[in-house]
Amino acid sequence: MTDDLIEKLSAQLPPYAKAMGMMVDHMAEGAPVLTMDYASRAVGRPGFLHGGAIAGMLEIAAIVALRAHLGDEGMTVRFKPINISVEYLRGGVQAQTFAMGSVIRAGRRIANVRAEAWQADRDKPLASCWMNFLLKPKSQAR
Questions:
Q1: What is the side-by-side order of every strand in the sheet holding 77-88?
Q2: Which homologous superfamily does the CATH classification assign to the domain defined by 2-137?
Q3: pLDDT for 69-105, tens place per residue?
Q4: How is the chain split into domains, by residue range?
Q5: d(CA 42, CA 129)
Q6: Which of 21, 35, 79, 107 is the least crowded, having the fewest Cβ atoms under 10 Å away?
Q7: What is the dihedral of CA 102, 47, 53, 87, to 10 degrees?
C-alpha cells in the first residue's frame, strides 16, 4: 500500500515540483517525505539554495501531506492555500534536501499544515512553515 501511495502522490505533483526535481522519496510517520537534489536551477548565492526554492519545497510538502491525509476523501475535496508563513533557520548547502509536512488539523472548511525542510540531519532544519488551506467540496469549488 505504501508504494502505491508514493507512486500516486508522485504522479500528482504539480509542474513546478517536477521542474525543480522534487519527488516523493518515502513515507515517515505516516506522511510523505519529499526530496530534491542540489542543482543549478535552485541556486541562490553561490554554493547555497535559493530561499524561494526552499519555500517552494515546503509548500509542496504541505500540499502532499494534506493530499495524503485526506486520502480517498481528497478526490471529493478541493483545497486552496490561504496563507503561508516561512521561517528560515539556516542556509541550504550543496546537498540533497528533504521536506515533510504534517497535518495539524483538517476540519470541514480549514486545514492547518506544518512543514519542515532539512538536509543531512533532520534535527537541524533549514526552514519551516505554517500553511492554511480552505477546503471545499468539489461540487461547490470555485
A1: 23-28, 31-36, 97-106, 110-118, 125-137, 77-88
A2: Hotdog Thioesterase (3.10.129.10)
A3: 988 665 678 889 999 999 999 988 888 999 999 999 9
A4: 2-137
A5: 19
A6: 107
A7: 50
